[in-house]
Amino acid sequence: MKVAYSFSVLRYVHDPVTQEFINIGVAMFSPESKYFRAICTTSYGRIASMFQTIDDPHFRQISQHIQDRICAVGDEFESALPFEAAPAIEHLLAQVLPPDDSAFQFSKAGVGLSADLDRTLNELFQRHVEQYARKTELHAQRQGGTPIS
Questions:
Q1: Which of 22, 104, 107, 139 is 20 to 30 A from 15, comparing alpha carbons?
Q2: From start to end of 14-134, where are the E strands?
Q3: CA distances from 10 to 62, 90, 142 (A)
Q4: Are strands 21-30 and 3-13 parallel, antiparallel or unpaired?
């Protein structure tokens, strides 16, 4: 049986004026299945290759923290009473990362149907984050360099 879900892409926005960004994670929510999870990369190679400057330990720490917090909020949501109204994904994401002009921002929500939420989350991560990381790494290897991770 397929269940409805919504998802949002986590972006690293290097400059709030130009709004140039790189996708670094995906969060997914299904109220029917009480599912709220995320996958975030801690690899900063694409960011460094595009913007040259990145505080890599800080980036890794924040990225991992966002993923961990989303999973913790998801665990709390799983144990919520069944008669409580399900919030929208934006409400749950705001508990983890309030919308502001910081470098880490979530996109507008997308929606879909899934028979396997874990698999779909992984597919969304591959589609929106990993496929571009592979292209950057391949380009660096062709140029004789080594990818930064």
A1: 139
A2: 21-30, 35-40, 104-106, 110-114
A3: 12, 12, 28
A4: antiparallel
- Name the token pair of 104: 């880490």
Strand partners, 38: 27
C-beta atoms surrounding 22 within 10 Å: 20
**What is the C-alpha to C-alpha distance for residues 44 and 42, in angstroms, rounded to an integer?**
6
3-class SS shares of the chain: helix, strand, coil, % to 5: 45, 25, 35
pTM recorded for the entire structure: 0.81
Rounded Cα gap, residues 30 and 133, in angstroms: 27
**Residues in the chain, overall count:** 149
Provide the 8-state DSSP code for 85.
P
Distance separating alpha carbons of residues 61 and 38, to the nearest angstrom: 15
* Cα separations in angstroms, 89 against 16, 107, 130, 148: 23, 11, 22, 32
Angle at the Cα of 56 from the Cα atoms of 51 and 62, rounded to 5 degrees = 105
